[in-house]
Batch of 2 targets.
Target 1
Amino acid sequence: MSKKITSILIANRGEIALRVIRACKDLGIKSIAIYSDEDVRAVHVKRADEAYHIGPAAPAQSYLNMTKIVETAKAAGADAIHPGYGFLSENENFSEMCEKNGIIFIGPTSKAMELTGDKMKCKAVMKKAKVPTVPGSDGIVEDMDEAADIADEAGYPVLLKSAFGGGGRGIRLANDEKQLRQEFEMTSAESRAAFGKAALFVEKYLERIRHIEFQLIRDSQGNSRHLFERECSIQRRHQKLIEMSPSPVVDQKTRERIGEIAVRAVDAVDYLNAGTAEFLRDPQGNFYFIEINSRLQVEHPVTELVTGLDLVKLQIGVAQGEEITFKQQDLKMNGCAIECRINAEDPFYEFAPSTGIVPNCNIPYGPGIRVDTYLYPGCNVSGYYDSLVAKLLAWGRNFDESRIRMKNALDEFMIEGINTTIPLYKTIMDDRNFINGELSTDYLERFKILNKMSENAKEAAKKSAKAAVAAVLLQSEFVRKTEAIHQSSMPKSKWKMMRG
């Protein structure tokens, strides 16, 4: 049994740090923030009960500095550390370091994290637990010839993946053996650079797939619950852009079936706390397990809106040894929620990063609208960290109401000084394929969404120019009529004098 948590150090920044701080305030728990040189004026520093400087702007010297963070937690008297997502959230060495220093890590154990982080070991465990996995190699592929043999058996196209990858990194597509040989060395080098290891595996590439994940929570007594699915198919280069719940293609019978498989998956690795089982769904309706994300997901508010649960509070409760209080049958899905990740990137120029001071911003609000953000007038969007600046969510009684609320909120959302992905999401909300639920991980390319976005921008610019001309003409007409009225009401001699 873990001890009661009275103070939590949040090993993160931005909107997720603020999210954890709010949960702490709800529970009467002291929140302890950390910050780098770049984040001296950040909102999470001001909102926390205490805040400690952690190092220079570069993540390796601040938010990734495990030793410094643990030392700070001990000096501040923190009972626990919440890692948020990104940074150290899926680092088994950090989890183990917390365990050895008597600090509760709000997440899975280091042992479970090590297993879920190694895709090959995890895949082997899933096969044993009769969880369906994608056809491909059963272990690490040692050389190119072995990779070619497996690809021939699985059938092209195939994906080369780093066994330690995540977030879309360390993945390359090969349509034939020639391309496989070219990509093998490049993927190995990419994996080595990103993760320090070059372990690769081969997986069958499934076309027109949907990315559907199940939110899970498991306590130290072995009680596992799934909190329904999220559709995450709208992506760019394997990075999620829009998430929603429920999925347009998951009915109640499928939800129960795949939810049971997801629970089986976390039970198989003796998981603890919140996590996500990720699946690919092919056009025939088959689901294939791909991985367990051993952390709180960026898109967790989607699940919160349709279940009414607070996932961060659940995490804290489980971390201090509490048993999950609800049964699976107690959970009901209510309405529909959509999340758009507002990134500081320019979608008109290959999603180039956009950084700098935000002179002003207007955050949307209203029925069913939620915005998780660190933005405020005068804040700095740094180039040192992730490009996510806000998560815009819309809840409705059904998909149509949720979509319309999202569309209106996007129109209200204004961020000066930087470029963002808002224009892309405005285009998607009006796209007939999105409205009809025709989603897949190649959605942007398949339906030429970026081209539609550019066309919409040109049309909007034309309308704006016409409106400006009309305004000038209207003003001129107003001046002419005003002068005519004045001229008719005063002597001609005075009028000529005024005209000069």
Target 2
Amino acid sequence: MKKFKKVLIANRGEIASRVIRACKELGIKTVAIYSEADSQALHVKKADEAYLVGPGPISGYLNINRIVDLAVNTGTDAIHPGYGFLSENPEFPEVCEKRGIVFIGPSSSAIAMMGDKIQSKKLMKAAGIPVVEGSDNAVLSEDEALEIAKAIGYPVMIKASAGGGGKGIRICFDDGELVRNFSLSQSEAQKAFGNPEVFIEKYITKPHHIEFQILADNHGNIIHLGERDCSIQRKHQKLIEIAPSLILNEELRQKMGESSIMAAKACNYRNAGTIEYIVDKDGNYYFMEMNTRIQVEHSVTEIVTGVDIVGEQIQIAMGKELDIRQEDVVMRGYALECRINAEDPRKDFVPSTGKITAYYSPGGIGVRIDGAVYKDYIIQPFYDSMIAKLTVSGRTWDETVRRAARALDEFQIKGIRTTIPFQLKIVQDDDFIKGDFDTHFIGERQYLRDYKLQRDPFDKVLAISAAVAAYYGI
């Protein structure tokens, strides 16, 4: 194994800080990149070196050649892509390889293969892994979509072939909805991913969204680290994640774990990845997609297994053989992660920007914060709205939920709106505490819908501030 001396992190926010932390524990120097809008970001302050990569807020983070040039010029051994931005762009590892830089992640071919939802579904089906019934290829017209929907039966989902993050998805319950939504999904897919292709699949009602974390080295060893339940979502985007799932028994866990390893073998996968499934009320599971990168919610798996997933990513890329075998993986207790987003739940989760006037993070036993902000930090409108992750753990599910409520109540971020009050309501919900939830949990609760209609004293403060500013011409 050849140890890296220096790693460049081609990302920002909490994941950049998380990778820096892992590198420091391994004795590896770090290089951060930033835009002008990000010059005061935490990852810039924490890295050993930091360099401006572009005048615009986004373009520098997406410029493959500029980033790789910087890695070469700074004597960097490897690049960690984090998540988002270039992390699932198959061109990135190709350019790294040509320039003699190690890409901390899977091969270009694996990224391309599993990034195409249509092709990955075909591959999984051929490997004997259950998939949701639907179209085998891109659906090019409304008429073709109607034919497929008639064959498999409503409800159906229109999904972007190159999609992710809930973008390009439309649920349709009849022909009229399918016709209305088809071109909208294509437009959203083109805008979000540069690819308008969509496909149709059967919509599984009231499912659980379950994903399995895998690690695969360069010596043929592949293991899974158990599952995460990501069913608490809004607009198909995860808000709370849990490990392990409350609905899986040991038999189903073993079957899904074996399927996940089979999926990794089918695409000759290396490094860390996640296999995502839909699980119906009868315990049937179906492959949904593979994320060929580190996941936001990796922290819950780290806590219940004791495995440093980011550290393993780096060491796998250095050529180290996994020293963890499947029989060594034991999940202890429970962990729950809340994505703390700078969003206003009262206004349909519209992003909230501005200066953070106060920041008090929770602490105590079983509390972990992965943060990207601090007092006086200014939330910009250019980036993803997640500003921190709160992960709590306990010996039992009941202890974990109570700890989550306590920690959310302690967590104070002032000056902007956040999802904290909304998430506090969820973890105090009796059905959530009992484990009675699925992907429809938020949409089915009237009190959460009513939450958006409640008046808040902060609105009055904002109105007064705006009036004063207008009066003085500020």
